[in-house]
Structure formats: C-alpha cells, structure tokens
TrEMBL record, chain A:
The keyword Oxidoreductase applies. This is Xanthine dehydrogenase YagR molybdenum-binding subunit. Keywords: Oxidoreductase. The keyword Oxidoreductase applies. GO terms for molecular function: iron ion binding; xanthine dehydrogenase activity. It comes from Rhizobium soli. Residues 146-165 are annotated as: Disordered.
Length: 735, 316
C-alpha cells in the first residue's frame, strides 16, 4: 500500500479498540516470567554452551601477543575464538569498529576473544586466563581538546551538517538583544536493564540467533555481512527485548561472538555482555559542545538564531545531530546551524533515545530560559511569541499539525505556572529552595516502510506476523488493537507474533517511528485480508463492513470463523510512503513543566513534580503511550542530574562502567508525574493518523529541570549533568 | 571466579585457626561484598570459611551499660533494634541510609566494617591499582576522582572507606572484638581499626591473618540528638559523596564523624570543641592537611555545609 495522500475516513477512526485504555497483552507473560528473553532460551535438548567475552584492556594500539593456551586447557572449555582463528570477518555497514578486534585495537573493551565452556562460570574463569600484551598507541579522548580539529563529515552527512537562511551574522550584529552561550552535554550510556545477549545455533551453514535487538532486518543483513554468508542463511529471533534505547539498533558483539563460538564449539552458545561492556564495548550517546546565539527585538521576537555543535567519534562514526531541532522549533528570519565531528578513540557514539534532539534541546531550552530572563519575559511567553507554523528555513513548507502553543498554555494552566516566582532563590520550603522550570518538547515524526502478514483461521482468530519488535514500548498491544479494529473482532481474538526474521520486514523499533509505522503496516495487511475474505465469500469488498466478528454486506452477514473456512485466509502487505513528509513537516510537540527542590545546605537536587503535555497525533493506546512518556521523563531526570560516562582522558575509557558508578534515577528520585495528551489526529502521517511518541517525552525534560534548579537557586549550570558539586560553587552562604 | 573449596566453622576460634592455616582462605558472612569481588576476580580466595553458623547474631546489654552487637547481626536487625533506635539513633539511621533493603537483610555487622572501597579503578582489573595489585601503581590519581578521598590519602592510594555504618560507630566510640587463631581475644577501638593507606593500601585494617571479628560493642548511651546525613547524587541506593554522623547535645557540644572523604571513618576529636562556633570552625580542623583533587575538592565545602544544616536542625 502506497501512502501518498492524506488519509480519509477509515475503519481505525471507529476507535472501538484503537485509542482505548488496553493493558499490555504480553503483560501476563512478563510478570509470570514466561516471556522468554534472548539469554533465557533453553530446552533440555539444546545442549547449550556458554560464551564469555574478553575485552581489550587498552583504548588504542595493537595486540603484540595473546596467550590462549591456559584458557584452552581450563576445565570445561570447548573453544577459544580470536580474530586470528575466527576466519575472515567483515565489518557491518553500521558498525564503526570491528565487533571482534585484533591485532589492531580501536577502543577499550573492544572484544578480542570469546571463550566457550560447559558452564558460564567456567567460561568466565577461563577468559581471565587469557594473557594479552599490547603496544599502546597515543589516542585522542578529550572532546574539548579535539574540538578545533573537528571537521565537516564527508558524504551526505556532511551535506546536511550546515544550514542557513537570511544573514545570521548581520542580523545578530544588529539585534537589540543578544544572547551567546556555550553548553556541554556528556557521554551517556543507554544502561538498559537487559544487557546485549544472544544465543546462536548452527544447522549446517545456517545460523539462528535468538537475540535482543530492535531492528530485525538490519540485524539479519549485518550478520550476513559480518560472517560473510548469504542473508538467507541467517535467522534472527527477538520476540522480547528488555530495553534498548537505541543500543540494540545494530548488530553488536554478543551476537557475533555467540555465532563464532557456536561454530567453533559445534554447539549452541549463549552469551550476555557483562555490564561494563554495555558502557565500553557497545555504543553510547556521544558528548557535545554546543554554542547558541540568539538575537531578538526588544519585545523578544527572534531575528537571528545560530546553533553550532561539536562531537567526537571513532573514524566511521557519525554526528550527534544536536542542532536539528533548532532548524525548526522557533521562528526567525536569519539563521544558521552547523555541526562538526572530531576524531576520538573512545568507543563508538551512536543513537540513544532521541538522538540529536535530547542533547540539542538540553542546550537550546536552557538558552531560551536564559534569554527570557535577559528580556524580562516569562519563558512560556517567549516560546509562544516565537512560534512558527512553517519550516523557518523553508517557509513554503508548513507543519502538518503543530500544537506547541497549546501544549505550553495547557501545561502552564494545569501546573500552576502562574505561581512561579520569576525572581530566583525566593521560594523556600523548610531547608528546600524550590523552583519551577519549563521547556518545549519537540521531535520529528518519521515513517518507515513496514510489512505484516495477517491470517484469519477457522476459529475466527486473527494472527499477525511481522518482524516488528517490542522493546517494552507496547508494540504487541497496539498491533493487536489495530488488527482487532480493522477486522471487527475483540482483542482477545487477535494473536501477535513478533521479532522473527522469517516474518515480513517491518519498520522495527527506533526513532519513535515504530508505533505509527508498524501499525500502518498491519493496517495495510488487514486491508488486503478484508479484500481476500470478501472475495472468498463473494461479497463486494467496496461495501462490506467488519464488525462483531462478522463480515457484512447489506443485510447479509457471515461469521469470520466460517468465512475463513478450514484453510483460513492469509494476506500480506507493506505500507510505503510517498512524498507527504517532504511536502509538510510532520512533528510531535510537547511542553514539560517541573518543580524541583534544592537543599540549601548540600545542594542536593530532588524533583518534586513533573507534568508533560504532548501533542503527537492519534494516541493508539493511552496506557502504553503514557508509559513511554513517563519513562522518558524519568530518563530526562537522569540526563539532567546524574548520568555521565566519566572519561579517563589519559587511558581513553569510560571509568564508571557499572550501574553503581553510572547512576540512573531510582524510584525514590521520581515523584508525582502527570501526562496529558492533546486531541490530535494527523492524516498526513499514515492511515493510523498517529505519530511517534516514544522519544518526544525525553526531548527538553533535562532543560526544564535545569531551568527549575536555576529558578530555585539563582545558579545557572551549563554543563550537564547538573550536580551538587557544580552548584556549590555559587550557592548562597549558610551557617 | 576461581574454583574454591568451602567449609563451615563451628566456633570463632576454630574459624580463626582454620583461616590461619590457609593463606588463600577468606571468611564469608552475608557475601554481599565478597562474592561480587570474587566474580570480578578482584579477590580470588581458594577456600571459604562460612561463619554464618557461629552463634554471633545477638544484640545484648553489656556490663558497662552499653550494648554488644554480635558480628553476624544483620544490618536490618541492627537498624530496627529498639535499643539501637532509642539510644544510638545515629547508628540506626546510618544503616538505613546504606545499600538497599535486600542487601541489608543479608549484610552483617562484621562484613559491613570490612567492605572494600568503591574506587572505580579498583573494580577494573585491566587498570593498575596498588590496593588490588600491590606495586602496580594507582590509576585513579590523575584520573576520575570525584568519589575519592580528600584526607588521610597517600601517593599510593586515594580510595575511601565507602560505608555508612562505621561512620556512626566512630562517632559512638565503638570497639571491635576479635578472636585470633591462637584463641586470644582483643578489643580494638574503632579509631584504630581501619588503617591509612601509606605505602601499603592493600592493608586496610589492623586485623591479623585469621583474626575473626566476634562483636562490636558500644559504650553506654551518651544522649543528645543523633543525626546521620548522607549526601548523594540520587535519593537512594548510592554511596555517599559525603556523610556526617553527628551527636549534638543540648548545650551545643557534641561529636562529629565524616564519611566518604577518607580511607577510614574520619573524626578529629579536637575539632569538636569548636562545635559551638559553628561548622566552619569544626571542619577547618577536621580537614586540616586535606589533599583534595580538582574534581573532589567540593567535598570539603560540602562537609562543612552538611554540618551547618545539622547544627541548624538540632539547635535548641
Ligand atoms: C549494590 C550495593 C550497594 C551498597 N551500598 C552501600 C551503602 O550505601 N552503604 C554501605 O555502607 N554499604 C553499602 N554496600 C556494602 C554492604 O554494606 C556490604 O556489602 C555488606 O555490609 C558486607 O557485609 P557481608 O556480611 O555481606 O560481608 P561479606 O561480603 O560476607 O564479607 C565482607 C568481608 O568481611 C569479611 N568478614 C565477614 N565476616 C567476618 C568476621 N566475622 N570476621 C572477620 N572477617 C569477616 C569477609 O572475609 C570479607 O572480606 C552496598 C553493597 C552493594 C552490593
Ligand atoms: S585509589 Fe587506591 S583503590 Fe583506587 S586505583 Fe588507586 S590504589 Fe587502587
């Protein structure tokens, strides 16, 4: 199905199942431990062996010698695989560094060997017996020091690195009010609950991998490239994923090491990355340095805006697109954005939830707060004054639906923003200094081609098969809702099978495109199934309805179970997109309102209240959508106040590589959270009229929190995370 | 984790003599620290002597009006004991500020005293660390040091004692009771129990090989207001950046011990005389000779402000 014109009325608009508060259909499996995650696959007859990885102990250089003899001879060991013994391996198109390194080392904890043994403990003990000598090479690990060497990337990424409209320099020079500040955001780890894990099993020259991955089709082709085999010989299974946040978009070392280990041992092998590997072996969100300049009229209308960003990465790694939102969020005739990439020898930086948007808005939305203060304007009003309904770089392009102002107004009213004291450091509650903050949330909607197969059986059950993944987002449920709505059945008559590469290729989960795209794919397949059923029973498909488990035409109706017959009916289709997204800017919007307390003595920061108002197309399921937003708000608390991969700039690695050192919020950090979704349907995005919502909730939260800290204390921190040691330098005197 | 053998000891003296006969033996109590370290091969004992069966899990009145806490009393039980809550509130609060409910249910009094540092380089066996591998160097110095020590540190090691319980015990003038392999017992004032690193950061306490902790005793209650203030980046489940255990009397005198700043619970008794002058005066003496790094110098200011908050809260 080609989607190239705005949707008209369709069965989804009935909203009998779609849009309803339906709890996760996979929930019972998850709470009873019967949702099988990658590392948990185990049948008695599988005869699984265990793999344990060895990571490079240096950041850059060469292995001069590696002694694996002691490991090989250790109890229970079945195989030891290194780059030398693995046979020819290629690098996947989406990996910056090799997943099995050596002799060349390109980053700390790059995998250099896998040990396979009868038990996990034996594999781990043997892995520690591998002796490696290195020749270190000097590396570059300090973004700030490398900033001046940063370049425009080559190819299409470089072409998109700079944009401009009007004449920024002139307009900024002439602006009545000028603002110019620099911000930094640190490297961050996805730190999802389930580390990367895989179980690989060979059958002749075919390999099946149960893994934890967000993008099945990518994983399949990258695995084929890496191992040098035909993609048709690779089967990927990832029905349940214990969190990904972007770290599982790509093929990673767990899957490759499991496959290599299984081949060498002649047994199925399972392998989970130890927690420190999540930080240094896989990807992370790269740190940025960002400079923002804004010129306005006395009244606060933006006349000039510039956003520049620098990040580092391994050769072959990409930009963190931190300026992307500034291109679209606020009006202003004269503008420029620019991104530069420095070569660093830290582990690969890559997509983490709201890549680009999250760090970009961490900076831009503090800048707007500072600017409001400078202009003596309410920060909500400043944002409203500078709203735009068109792409400010290309004013002929309109937003398909933009309710930023409505989000801000509704949020301000609900939160009690009028009680905020614009003067900083004024509100006290016992030993707490209390402040409020606001920020805009903004992320684009993306659509991805997505396929599904739908089957109606003689029991009247509709089964959906697609390689879509559910990374905790609720895909199972919204897909079931879509199929139920389309086929006129209740949700208990729908079965959903996901995450199997033998199913039609879907959008996968990433970039907040999964919800809208994958359900649109199911919509397309259901349209095909409706046609097939109509044809089978001899009804004219133009005037049939599907409701109450029946197909109807005029005064004739047949139960679906009967219509299916004993062979059932199957249909498959893929949603593909035309140019609507180029013609109109499809984006999601929101506003975050937060209140924090800062201990006047210790400068400890604790969140008191959070509200997020979102306008993000049709909300397919308010429960799962809300979970996405509150989860993202929680992640934003981490980003604002604690998350930072601490770089050892001499040795080139992230030092706090476990969950004790890399702190994320715990329950005690998260107070009352509210989410409001504004009514919205956007017919330009898909037949579902929905948009993404999984990343929107993270965009801007950290800035709102940081702004609240400033409101509470009068101290402005421009280097994330906002921690008490930074605040203490300027906190009011006590004692 | 290396292979190891395991046995249960029948008495403290037996445990001590068994440990003395095997250089690679370790006691295991709750296991919440030791097992983690073994999995990471930071510690690799080849023999474990389980002390959990020893009859050391009581909290009793002692002759001098204080209490005697058995070495195996779990952190949860100690924190919730009525006498401890009433007469030694600082200890109860310190315990509850530590770890999580699950861990406190397992963790023992002796094990808590002996918990090892949380220096991140200590946990990465690819990095040099004098404490983990004597003589290999200290990779923390010059590196990431925000969590590490500011006083009592040496050129060989700047790691801290990360615990909470011991800080309160230091303020309470606790004593550690032990049995040696030859059956002799001794009582070690907590002030002397943990050692400063000097050139030998691998030696963390005065315990001799095989010596078993049997109890911790607290002197008779001293009254006053008991506060334990633990400062951290998140609200729960994190080690202290700085913690302050304070007992403040109605007349403004009192005791102060500081955690998160030194290789041992840090208390400077002479500084306490300045309590009526306020936190600045006290902390100037507590931190005299401090050697913070650029990243952790905030700890000195933080300790001072934390105490200021306590003094305000306990006033009158
Ligand atoms: C995730 C996590 C978070 C934590 N957070 C905190 C925190 O916030 N604050 C805090 O204070 N602590 C914290 N801890 C540490 C915790 O308090 C210790 O792990 C615990 O107290 C150790 O007690 P245990 O009985 O389990 O000791 P074990 O692990 O069994 O033993 C520790 C050491 O003591 C020795 N030992 C045990 N008993 C005796 C004895 N009777 N005589 C001689 N030697 C003995 C062992 O040989 C070993 O060397 C945390 C731990 C974890 C895992
Ligand atoms: S500070 Fe101490 S524990 Fe940390 S690396 Fe240095 S020697 Fe090891």
């Amino acid at each position: 199905m080609l989607f190239d014109r705005p949707a008209t009325t369709n069965p989804i608009d009935q909203m009998k199942v779609v849009g309803q508060h339906i709890t996760r259909i996979d929930g019972p499996k998850k709470v009873t431990g019967t949702a099988t995650y990658a590392y948990e696959w185990n049948h008695a007859n599988l005869n699984v062996a265990y793999g344990y990885p060895v990571g490079a102990g240096i950041a850059k250089g060469r292995i001069s010698s590696m002694d694996i003899q002691a490991a090989r001879n250790a109890p229970g060991v079945l195989a030891v695989v290194t780059a030398e013994t693995a046979g020819k391996l290629s690098k996947g198109k989406m990996n910056a560094a090799k997943l099995l390194g050596g002799p060349e080392i390109s980053h700390y904890h790059q995998a250099i060997a896998v040990v396979v043994a009868e038990t996990f403990e034996q594999a781990r003990a043997a892995a520690s017996l591998i002796k490696v000598d290195y020749v270190r090479a000097p590396g570059s690990y300090d973004l700030e020091a490398a900033k001046d060497t940063a370049k425009k990337p080559e190819g299409s990424e470089g072409e998109d690195a700079d944009t401009s409209a009007g004449n920024f320099d002139k307009a900024f020079a002439e602006a009545a009010v000028k603002f110019d500040q620099t911000y930094t955001t640190p490297d961050q780890s996805h730190a999802m609950m389930e580390p990367h894990s895989s179980l690989a099993m060979w059958d002749g020259d075919e390999v099946t991998v149960w893994t934890s991955n967000q993008m099945i089709a990518w994983n399949k082709s990258e695995m084929a490239i890496t191992l040098g085999i035909d993609p048709e010989k690779v089967h990927i299974m990832s029905p349940f994923v214990g969190g990904g946040f972007g770290s599982k978009l790509f093929l990673r070392s767990d899957a490759v090491l499991a496959a290599l280990g299984a081949k060498a041992a002649g047994r199925p092998v399972k392998l989970a990355l130890p927690r420190p590997f999540v930080m240094n072996n896989t990807t992370h969100r790269p740190a940025t340095i960002q400079r923002i300049r804004i010129g306005t009229t006395q009244e606060g209308k933006i006349t000039a805006i510039a956003h520049e960003s620098w990040n580092g990465n391994l050769p072959g790694g990409s930009l963190e697109t931190a300026v992307a939102q500034t291109r679209l969020l606020y009006a202003g005739e004269n503008r420029m954005t620019s991104m530069r990439l420095a070569a660093l020898d830290l582990p690969e930086g890559n997509a983490m939830r709201a890549p680009g948007e999250a760090p970009g808005l961490m900076a831009l939305e503090i800048a707007m707060d500072e600017l409001a203060e400078q202009l003596n304007l309410d920060p909500v009003e400043l944002r409203i004054i500078n709203d735009t309904q068109v792409d400010p770089e290309k004013p002929e392009r309109k937003f398909s639906h933009r309710q930023l102002v409505e989000c801000l107004r509704r949020g301000a009213e609900t939160f009690g923003w009028d009680k905020r004291n614009a003067e900083t450091g004024r509100v006290k509650d016992g030993r707490w200094m209390v402040g409020m903050g606001v920020a805009a949330a903004f992320r684009n909607n993306m659509n991805m081609k997505s396929g599904a197969r739908v089957r109606l059986d003689s029991e009247g059950v509709v089964t959906v098969e697609t390689d879509m993944t559910d990374i905790g987002t609720g895909s199972y449920t919204i897909i079931a809702q879509t199929a139920a709505e389309m086929m006129g059945v209740t949700i208990d008559k729908v079965a959903v099978e996901l995450g199997d590469s033998r199913f039609p290729a879907s959008s996968g989960s990433g970039g907040q495109w999964g919800g809208n795209s994958s359900t649109a794919g199911v919509y397309a397949a259901c349209v095909a199934l409706r046609d097939a059923i109509s044809q089978k029973v001899g009804f004219n498909s133009a005037d049939v309805t599907f409701a109450d488990g029946q197909i109807r035409s005029g005064n004739r109706s047949i139960a679906l179970a009967e219509a299916a017959g004993k062979d059932g009916v199957v249909a498959e289709d893929t949603i593909e997109y035309g140019d609507l997204a180029e013609e109109m800017q499809q984006s999601t919007f929101g506003a975050h309102f937060v209140e924090v307390g800062v201990d006047m003595y210790t400068a400890e920061i604790r969140v008191r209240r959070m509200l997020s108002v979102c306008a993000a197309g049709r909300i397919l399921n308010p429960i799962t959508a809300r979970s996405q937003v509150i989860g993202a708000m929680t992640m934003g608390v981490g980003g604002a106040f604690m998350e930072e991969l601490a770089v050892d700039k001499r040795r080139g690695f992230f030092v706090n590589h476990d969950l004790a050192g890399y702190e994320v919020p715990v329950h005690a950090d998260i107070p009352h959270q509210d989410v409001i979704f504004l009514d919205e349907t956007d017919p330009t995005t898909s037949p579902m009229k929905a948009k993404g919502v999984g990343e929107l909730g993270l965009c801007g939260v950290a800035a709102a929190l940081s702004n609240a800290v400033h409101n509470a204390t009068g101290v402005r921190i421009r280097d994330y995370p906002v921690t008490l040691d930074k605040l203490l330098r300027d906190m009011p005197q006590v004692g | 984790m290396k292979q190891f053998t395991y046995e249960r000891a029948a008495s403290p003296a037996e445990a001590a003599s068994k440990a003395a006969n095997n250089q690679n033996a370790k006691f295991i109590a709750g296991g919440t620290n030791l097992l983690d370290l073994m999995k990471l091969e930071i510690e690799s004992p080849t023999h474990l002597i389980d002390v959990n069966g020893l009859d050391l899990d009581k909290i009793e009145q002692s002759e001098n009006g204080g209490v005697r806490i058995g070495a195996l009393v779990r952190n949860t039980d100690l924190a919730s004991d009525e006498r401890i809550r009433r007469d030694y509130g600082v200890l109860s609060r310190a315990l509850l500020a530590g770890a999580s409910g699950q861990l406190r249910n397992k963790a023992t009094t002796a094990g808590n005293l002996l918990q090892r540092t949380r220096c991140p380089y200590f946990y990465d066996t690819a990095q040099p660390c004098n404490k983990r591998k004597p003589g290999s160097g200290c990779s923390a110095i010059g590196g990431v040091t925000r969590q590490l020590g500011v006083i009592g540190v040496s050129d060989a090691c700047i790691a801290t004692h990360p615990g909470d319980m011991a800080i309160a015990m230091r303020a309470l003038d606790a004593t550690v009771e032990t049995v040696k392999p030859d059956g002799a017992t001794r009582a070690i004032p907590i002030a002397d129990f943990h050692k400063l690193p000097g050139d030998t950061p691998e030696i963390e306490t005065t315990l001799e090989r095989g010596e078993v902790i049997t109890a911790v005793t607290l002197p008779a209650p001293v009254g006053g207001k008991h506060v334990y203030r633990k400062v951290r980046d998140r609200a729960s489940y994190a080690f202290a950046l700085v913690s302050v255990a304070a007992i403040i009397q109605p007349d403004g005198t009192g005791r102060v011990a500081v955690g998160g700043v030194a290789p041992k619970p840090w208390r400077v008794e002479e500084a306490e005389a300045d309590l009526p002058q306020g936190s600045k005066a006290v902390m100037a003496k507590v931190f005299a000779g401090a050697k913070p790094t650029e990243e952790n110098s905030f700890k000195v200011t933080l300790a001072e402000r934390t105490l200021a908050g306590i003094l305000e809260e306990t006033k009158g």
